[in-house]
Amino acid sequence: MLIQVIVSGLLISAIYALATTGFTLLYGVSGILNLAHGTTLAASGIATWYLMGTAQLNPLLAIALGTLTGVAIGLLTFVLIIRPLRTLMKLSVADEHVFMLVATLLWTIILQEALSYLFGDVPVSVPQLVPGIVEIFGVRTPISSVLVAGLSWCVIAALWFYVSKTRSGQTILAASINPKGLTLCGVNLNAVHIVVWAIYGGLAGLAGVLVAMILGVSPSGGLELTATAFSIVVLGGLGSVGGTLIAANLIGFIETGTAYLISPSVRTLPALIILIIVLYVRPQGLFGRR
Fold this sequence. Notes:
By secondary structure, the chain is mainly α. It has helices at residues 2-30, 37-53, 59-88, 93-119, 143-165, 167-177, 179-184, 189-214, 222-236, 241-261, 269-281, and strands at 133-136, 139-142.
């Protein structure tokens, strides 16, 4: 049982890490906690399921289009919700955070209702790309799950290379450190935010496809995915990508152990309890700053 929990925890943690990296990147650059995050994941997974099943597209093409669904929703969130609030209402910093939370919460409800109307509010799963079982330390594991975990870490590594080694990535990093200074250097901060939202959407879209492949998704499950992502980024430290990766592994193992030892129906409960404890004891998270 212990080995089963370890292996399954590693696989789930990889998906959680990918699903929350974009969430953390978005907060680090723009200071926005996007409560429509889980629904973005769900929409991408549902789109891929529909394209592979009903539309019978090539699986790789369906996955690519499902990922682009996340990009589209991310950019729509920025254009329809975020930018108008910042440019038209001229809110104070404190009021802006509250309005952003409320606006993205309403946006996720709209997206959920649209998904439920179009596809029905039922859980769906993306078919596994590679059939078969492999044994890992005696634990029988689907090959597709191993590939999904490997792909997740490869994408995270590619994001690290982009941010740390490319010029545009360095601009994004500078925007997260000193946006006013970057503006004084002649950089269009609005263009940087568009790029960040597109990257966020791509990461969320791909993560949504992988979540749908391993765990399944549904329109009403978006808030549950958001709660898990929120617990991870708060535990790791808001804006800390490294802390998010560590917290993703912790939450992944805790949820997996809960599912095996207690019941799958309460697997997300420990993450919410941890979130409450962290907010009381260490609000900045394990690796965040005050």
